[in-house]
Design goal:
138 residues, 5-stranded antiparallel beta sheet, 45% strand, Lipoprotein
């Protein structure tokens, strides 16, 4: 029985080693004339992973858990510009350009894992770009 006890404890010691992720809302953009919204979030899953910048599209009439992830990217180890949010988020600009049309502009140096062209009845367009930076006076 004593030999069996350490064998049972080893698998139990691995419980709870999964990193817990925290999420911070950076921006909420509302679709005029609709109950749709786009939320930009920063997800942190621990020291061994890069921060993820995420855009989700949902409807105010539905639970937040039903919002659809339409964009996921990270800084590719720090190559992408952090933009105005800092803290590990990549440069983003998320704007409803017309009813049902969402524009997502992100730093072209970010590593994009997901981009979905339609969600919750909206059309989504993505564009990689370099963020504007002021030039020093000459």
């Amino acid at each position: 029985m004593r030999a069996l006890l350490p064998a049972l404890l080893i698998p139990l010691s691995a419980c709870g080693t999964e990193p817990t992720c925290s999420t911070k809302v950076l921006q909420v953009a509302r679709d005029i004339g609709s109950d749709r919204y786009a939320v930009t979030e920063l997800r942190d899953c621990g020291a061994t992973t890069d921060y993820a910048t995420i855009v989700r599209v949902g409807r105010a009439s539905e639970p937040q858990s039903e919002a659809v992830e339409v964009f996921v990217a990270d800084s590719d180890g720090g190559y992408a510009n952090q933009g105005i949010y800092g803290g590990g988020a990549i440069f983003m600009n998320v704007v409803w350009t017309a009813p049902g049309e969402l524009s997502v502009v992100h730093d072209e140096d970010g590593r994009v894992f997901k981009h979905v062209a339609r969600a919750k009845g909206a059309t989504i367009k993505f564009r990689g770009s370099k963020p504007w930076q002021p030039q020093p006076p000459t």
